[in-house]
Amino acid sequence: MAKAIQIDERDNVATVTSDVGVGEVVEVLSPEGEVLTSPEMKGEVSFGHKIALKSLEKGDEVVKYGEVIGVASKSIGVGVWVHTHNVESATVPTSAYAEGGA
Amino acid sequence: MTVFYGYERPDGSVGVRNHLLVLTPMDCSIEPAKKIAAQVEGAVAVTQHHGCGFDWMVANTLIGTGRNPNVAGVLLVGLGCESLTCEVLAEGIESTGKPLETLVIQDEGGSVRTTEKGVRILRGMAEEVSELQRETFPLSKLMLAVECGGSDATSGLAANPAVGVAADMLVDEGGTVVFGETQEMTGTQHVLARRAVDAGVAEEIHAMIGRQELRMRAAGIDSRFMSKGNVEGGLTTIEEKSLGAIRKGGTRPIQGVLGTGREGFDYPSRPGLWLQDGTGSDVPSVTGMVAAGAQVVVFTTGRGSTTGHAIAPVLKVTGNPGTYSRMGDNMDVNAGAILDGSGNLRSVGEGIFSDVVEVASGRMTKAEALGYHDFIVYRTSGLAERLLEVCPPEALRGGRGLSSEAALEPGF
Predict the structure, then answer these.
(1) B80: left (phi over 0), alpha (psi -120 to 50) or beta
(2) 3 state DSSP class of A68
(3) Which residue range forms the structural domain that includes residue A62?
(4) How many CB atoms lie within 10 A of CB A54?
(5) What is the CATH number of the domain that holds B68?
(6) What is the dihedral of CA B21, B26, B27, B32, to 10 degrees?
(7) ipTM of this model?
(8) Which residue among A94, B42, B62, B354 is buried most deeply as judged by most CB within 10 Å?
(9) Do A5 and B157 touch (CB under 8 A)?
(10) If 0-12 CB within 10 Å is exposed, 13-18 middle and 19+ buried, where does residue B350 land?
(11) Closest partner CB to B346 (pick from A32, A64, A67)
């Protein structure tokens, strides 16, 4: 089964450890290797990218490593790919990357 | 309580290796120094390549290297007319009480006589050192440097968090951990400052990262931008990227900032987690942390690095299972086990902690077995640092980072 890692217990995103397709069930593992939750994927997500573990509303903090890495720029459902298209950074507009910048 | 087996030095510090260091103040005397080291078992010759001119930033890194407890004895070899003299290095090293001798080529009558005399001195030191026995010591005598280089998407996901687990374990057992690469802390100053032991340290952290951002702006680089490859690999914001980089140092309180500049070179004054204000380039960064006293280095690398160090064992951890199988001659630990489910962050982290203790106790790393002696002394431009002090920040226009990928990439 596909897997994702939740690095810190406060995180609301997890990182997938392989490419995963729509409808696949992903086992989200704790640092100790326990299965914390098993969301169903709402889209394709590539290895190393993140999925939401909780429903996020626009303006909600996105937390990884137990720290805020950005803010949701639109609502994000459980199992949805989390990246520059739906997260805004406090330091650099993520649109800079979407435009092919950086 | 975990213990390791090391060699006690006259100043009470504990070495995990018994290297003999042939140290030259600059590269004009490195050739005879290399010939001397080549003839004596356990000896290694190092120098710096910033040319003739006195710079405390360079001098202090060389002094720190000589003071490192992994060095059992030092032979200084100078030419005689250099600005940074053997005398300055000797003054910095001698309080450790370890065997220390000096040869000056112009006084000895050339390099051949210097080499002959040097080999004889060093042979004597080798015999003396060989009588030292390893004894058990608590982890409060151990300082670990953590570094990342040649990173990929697995670094922030597997290797760095696993090394962070090991770093926390070492700190919890009374040990010392240091990590540097100031430019990779960009965007995380608030996180690091919150973990500072007091307000003064929090201020130092903000000042250190602020200074680095200023340097990058002056170079036309906006340090807040990531490379396209970073974004394609799954990193969404600079905060996420930097948090992945600093995770290798674990999560414990930050005791302070270790300076490496001309104002002074700092050594940790107590155990715990420390930051070093240093370069983002791998080998000079490791050289700086070993000069500050680290006896063991853990180096995370996704794409695969071969690096070792002249006087410290470097344990290489990759989070990429493909890199581990392709570069098995260079990789010590497969943190990729976290990705394929055969391990988890905690179990791999505990394994790295055990590896650190075993390596400290004498087990060779792959870079050591291959005889890799990387050593590069870093220095900032004294001119640029002075100009930055007097230049109003608003005069420094930041770039978009378009030409900055090379500057942003190293280390992470």
Answers:
(1) left
(2) strand
(3) 2-98
(4) 14
(5) 3.40.50.2300
(6) -50
(7) 0.94
(8) B62
(9) yes
(10) middle
(11) A32
